[in-house]
Amino acid sequence: xxxxxxxxxxxxxxxxxxxxxxxxxxxxxxxxxxxxxxxxxxxxxxxxxxxxxxxxxxxxxxxxxxxxxxxxxxxxxxxxxxxxxxxxxxxxxxxxxxxxxxxxxxxxxxxxxxxxxxxxxxxxxxxxxxxxxxxxxxxxxxxxxxxxxxxxxxxxxxxxxxxxxxxxxxxxxxxxxxxxxxxxxxxxxxxxxxxxxxxxxxxxxxxxxxxxxxxxxx
Length: 218
Known about the structure:
One of its GO terms (molecular function) is inward rectifier potassium channel activity. Helices cover 41% and strands 19% of the residues.
């Protein structure tokens, strides 16, 4: 048992499209292996896309022809094939120094694509780093070090029958202003005969008296 309701959604149209509509939250919720896969594929796809664009620019400008047949400045220096264009794309987006392979003033479209790839690279970096940081700081894993007793008891406390269980914090860092909330989940049949398999009832843990606030030290 992990506190989740054992339910399955059915008859939901466009479920995948709804997840893609909020792609940032989807990336935060998915497993790390899929997150790293998307992270790698996003960069690889952008490198390949702009590599193809630079290669097409070189082909259209005649930069791939033999040296004796050109006689003019190429759009991108030292780009003689697709692999060289792909390497130039990686250097542009990762801001690695160009060296001999660099864009020239011969082709304005090549200069524009360098600017466009730099902007796209910044957007991808911001999105991926933001999603990874949001995933890392989520309190979901913090709950792994909060332990609940396997058994709960009903016993007298100050002359009243109380439903009690224990909570333990494994970490040395204290949890200040922890709010306690408990729900009783059970099946119920309404007066109209409707069967509710997971009826949720809030248990009074001292909301009115402020007893729902706890200083969890151990």
